[in-house]
Amino acid sequence: MADTSKAPSFPITKRRLRFFGLTSDELVQLFFRGNAMVSVLVLALITLFLFREGLEFFGQNQQNLQVYRRAGLDYVDHMRWQEQDHTALNRYLLDVRMKVMADLTGRGGLSVEAANQRLEAFDQYSIRFDDAIAPLRGLVSELSETASAIKTKYYINEDKRTERRQLLAAGRADEAARVEVIQVDFARELEPILASRDAYLAINRDLARELQELASAARAVPGVPVERMDRFGTLVVQYVGGFPQIEQRLATWDYREDVSLLRSFSAFIFGRQWLTASFWQDWYGVLPLFVGSLMVSMIALTLAVPLGVGAAIYVNQIASPTEQRLIKPCIEFIAAFPSVVLGFFGIAVLGEFLRSISGAAWLDWVPGFPLAERLNALTAGCLLGLIAVPTIFTLAEDALQNVPRSFKEASFALGATRLQTIVRVIIPTALSGIISAVLLGLGRVIGETMVVLLCAGNRIEIPDFTAGIAAFFQPVHTMTGIIAQEMGEVVRGEIHYRALFVVGIVLFFLSLTINFTAQKILRRYRQQPL
Q1: Helix/strand/coil (H, E, C) string of 422-435?
Q2: Pairing assessment for the beta strands 18-19 and 22-23 based on DSSP bridges
Q3: Which 3 state secondary structure label does DSSP give 374?
Q4: 432 Cα distance to chain centroid
Q5: Residue 237 exposed, middle or buried by CB count within 10 Å (0-12, 13-18, 19+)
Q6: What is the distance between the alpha carbons of residues 42 and 49, in angstroms, rounded to a whole number?
Q7: Which terminus of the chain, N or C, has less C-beta within 10 A?
């Protein structure tokens, strides 16, 4: 009989190793928890840094706009806008001449000299229209110099004030006493500008009379289409009709009116100019950069979504195992290309190719063709579409792979064809995952820097959307591009430096929103019952 007196009365368990009082399982948990906490900490630090550096911009911009008004630049702007509207009408006449000239020398078969002779009366009309604004242009130039001098004087004195504070803080009181600071009296400095109002009203009366005569004579100008000149006459009448409003704004203008913090915020969000190092005034409006980023992303998704999703459907549902082993690595390998290499490709090859093919005769019907410049939104969008394809393909293919096989078998059992099964069963089931793939592809595109910096043309201007689809063939600038281009040139703490960080905040929240939306859709897709 076996001796069982020494047998344990409880099951034998493995002895757990301990390090610093923690078991191995607890150490593993601590390691992964630490990784998660590092990710959260990095995100928090990035957010804190962006806000710390960027939020001071709005106070600085408020002060910037306040000085702009105090110096009278805001007053002169009303006259400047009037002059610019006249210049826009002048461009209308130039456009009419160019089209008539092309028609006369093309279908009309006239020589350039003969066509110029036929347009001689139109040229005289254009010269008279251009000369009409000369008195106002001279007044605006004179007042601009005066207002700019007031602003410059103010900032010079502010620099001296700062210098004095720094010297006092360093204990150099004798040197600080020698720094002369003069308080700028804006009321006295503005007297020459405000006294010019009577001269402006007299110029405006003569200008209105001259332009009304030109509007009445527009239809009678020979050699140009009557309907185009009728339209020009209407535009001139509308332009002259706005003169009383400008005069009223000048009459009620007050340099003492405060600029609110909300005005500083709206000037950034809705501002149509991003202009730095200007003798007149620096403007920080993110709208043209946002529009540029949006346009390039739209072009990229227009190309990437059909290619990425289509390739995912083919590889997952139709391709043979051999094709899958060939296609998947090739598409995913695109992500390995450095973006700067793709940018060089866009400059040297793609941009020139698109401009060359746009000049083909059979593409004359496309608005905006032939392309005037090889670096534009289309070139950058095509390359960004190529960058987004691997992201969309991989995630969409995973979504299709997660569709239960029983769905496909049940569809075949009911007599559906392969195409019907893909379109009516597989794709609808995986739709949430596909949408998430597209959104993550958009997040990848909108955060790209080097390609847009090299290939988008970098023109800080909202494209002319009245041209229709041709607007997408114009040069643009983007939010990522402006940060990369200008961050190395700015002085830390200055308003330009802060403005770039606010652009970064906008970009950060835009990317965060896109990725959060994609993750919500993907989480819903994974949790839905199958």
Answers
A1: HHHHHHHHCHHHHH
A2: antiparallel
A3: coil
A4: 29
A5: middle
A6: 10
A7: N
Query: Are the beta carbons of 443 and 422 closer than 8 angstroms?
Result: no
CA angle 162/166/168 to nearest 5° reads 115
Amino acid at 449: T
- Look up residue 263 and give its two tokens: 């005005």
**Beta bridge pairs of residue 22:** 19
| Distance separating alpha carbons of residues 522 and 437, to the nearest angstrom | 8
- Residue 342 near residue 426, CB atoms below 8 Å: no
- The structure tokens listed for 245 are 């409003």
What is the three-class DSSP state of 273? coil
Q: Print burial letters for 385-422: b (CB count within 10 Å at least 16), e (below 16).
A: bbbbbbbbbbbbbbbbeebeeebbeebeeeebeeeebb
What is the enclosing helix (H) or strand (E) of 138?
helix 134-169
pTM of the full structure: 0.83
CA angle (9, 10, 12) in 5-degree steps? 125
Query: What are φ and ψ of residue 23, in 5° steps?
Result: -75, 165
**Nearest one of 89, 125, 123 to 219, comparing CA atoms:** 125
Cα–Cα dist 469/478, whole Å: 19
Q: How confident is the model at residue 453 (pLDDT cuts 50, 70, 90)?
A: very high
Closest alpha carbon to 316 in 422, 416, 392 = 422
pLDDT in tens, 57-111: 999 999 999 999 999 999 999 999 999 999 999 999 999 999 899 888 888 888 8
Query: Can you tell me the distance from the alpha carbon of 455 to that of 149, in angstroms, rounded to the nearest whole number?
Result: 39
H-helix or E-strand spanning residue 283: strand 283-284
Spell out the alpha helix ranges (H) of 108-133. Answer: 112-118, 120-131
The answer for residues whose C-beta is within 8 angstroms of residue 208's C-beta and 6 or more apart is 240, 243
The Cα-based distances of 319 to 41, 179, 313, 401 in angstroms read 44, 80, 9, 13
